[in-house]
Amino acid sequence: MKNKNSSSVIEHILVTLNGKDMGVMGVRAQIEKKLCDAFQVTELTVTDESHLHAGHAGAREGGESHFRVKLISSDFVGLGRVERQRRVNHVLAEELAGPIHALALKLETP
């Protein structure tokens, strides 16, 4: 289900590096946008934990490879944990095939 108020949930779409607007959507912002577009979002937190995995396999230089997502959505009502994860993985399939090496999900109902 599309979130009609996704702009109120997403606070940052453009990536800022050293205080300069780079005008390009980073991986974190892509995750936020796609999830807000796909689900009725009550709460969304996307945390880049790449710095915790620096030097490990799958860690990209510059980060944006390891994320933790907390998503609360009424779309998850009546769904089990595995089905919730499948739906999120489907929405983020492009990112999971590319820049995301690890994705931790906490998916809840309101």
Q: For the terminal residues, how far apart are their CA atoms?
A: 15 Å
Low-confidence stretches: 1-23
Elements, N to C (H/E): HEEHEEHHE
How many runs of DSSP E, i.e. beta strands? 5
CATH class: Alpha Beta
Description:
The chain is an alpha+beta fold. The chain has a single domain, classed as BolA-like (GMP Synthetase, Chain A, domain 3, 2-Layer Sandwich), CATH 3.30.300. The protein is built from 4 helices and 5 strands. It has helices spanning 6-9, 27-38, 81-91, 93-97, and strands spanning 16-17, 20-21, 41-48, 66-73, 102-108. The strands form 2 sheets. A 3-stranded mixed sheet has the order 3-4-5. Strands 1-2 form a two-stranded antiparallel sheet. The longest helix is centred in the N-terminal third of the chain and has 12 residues, at 27-38. The chain is elongated, with a radius of gyration of 14 Å. Residues 1-23 have low confidence and may be disordered.
Key terms for this structure?
three-stranded mixed β-sheet, 5 strands, 4 helices, disordered N terminus, elongated, alpha+beta, 29% helix, 110 residues, single chain, two-stranded antiparallel sheet, GMP Synthetase, Chain A, domain 3
Question: Which secondary structure elements does this structure contain, and how are they paired or packed?
Answer:
Blueprint: H1 6-9, E1 16-17, E2 20-21, H2 27-38, E3 41-48, E4 66-73, H3 81-91, H4 93-97, E5 102-108
Parallel strand pairs: 4-5
Antiparallel strand pairs: 1-2, 3-4
